[in-house]
Amino acid sequence: MPTAQQWIDSLGLEPHVEGGYFRRTYQADHRPMVSTPHGERHLLTSIHYLLTESSPIGHWHLNRSDILHFHHSGAPLTYHLIHPDGRLRTAVLGQDPGQGHVLMLAVPGDVWKATHLTGGGHALISEAVAPGFDYADMTLGRPDVLTARFPQHAELIRRYVRQAPPPGGA
């Protein structure tokens, strides 16, 4: 199995603002743009995304678009999802259905998400985003805002939130 650094090098991955490494692999340039309340978006985009031992967390963030996550290689990933009504769902994306892993996970838009390596090492996934991803549609979680909105999940929020998100994050 390739090492994390081999994946980074061979796929041309770069650090991602939410944690881990990524590279956009597709956008539907041959299709008409989709009109959303927040502007024109590609119909579909996709990325490769990698979490590693040195960057094991995809910190709390929210996307307006729906995202499908596909596990390709390496350790399983645990996803923590907080829905707008405060309901928490946890799922493990990985290769072992006997351990309750799923190969594909759908995360609806407007659901807060944090991800972490479950077993160490690294994990390579792909994501398909519809309407296509735009940074204007992503909000990074702030601990004060998230714990005020979801106090029942305060401990989990603090565990996986960036302590100093860039300005403009919620």
TrEMBL record:
Domain DUF985 stretches: 5-140
Pfam families: Cupin_5 (PF06172)
UniProt xrefs under Gene3D superfamilies: Jelly Rolls
Protein name, per record: DUF985 domain-containing protein
